Amino acid sequence: MENFQIIFWFFVTPILLMGEALKKAWGWWNWTMLFQILLLGIALGYSLIVLIESFVIELLVLLLIQVVGMFLMKSLMTQGYLDRRMLVMLFLSGIFLGGVVLIILV
Q1: Which conformational region is residue 54 in: left (phi greater than 0), alpha (psi within -120 to 50 degrees), or beta?
Q2: What is the pTM of this model?
Q3: CA distances in angstroms from 14 to 5, 19, 47, 91, listed in the order given
Q4: Is the CB of residue 38 less than 8 Å from the CB of residue 100?
């Protein structure tokens, strides 16, 4: 039961809040865009913590995820779906969630 509460408060709630923020910013949002941004932020947050702990192989895999994610973000920004302020907010949320993922896994 305690694991369910951790998953709910640290994963489901921030995702729903980010969805509401996207909806208020543009009047719409879709799950694909939200999860792409969130995945990139989680990879960034997790890789920052891994860098501190210096697990080189995991860091290289996560940096590869980030490079792919950066191309996705650039395409979203050039199509006008994403502004810099929203990108920063979602990155910070993803960094937080990346730290939570590491804490739960360890």
Answers
A1: left
A2: 0.34
A3: 13, 8, 20, 12
A4: no
Q: One-letter amino acid identity for 7?
A: I
Judge whether 44 and 94 are in contact, CB under 8 Å. yes
CA separation for the pair 78, 63 (Å, rounded): 22
> In total, how many domains does the chain have?
1
Please tell me the distance from the alpha carbon of residue 96 to that of residue 24, in angstroms, as a whole number: 22
Alpha carbons 83 and 65: distance in angstroms, whole number? 21
pLDDT single digits (tens) 6-36:
555 555 556 666 666 666 666 666 666 666 6
Residue 91 structural domain: 2-105
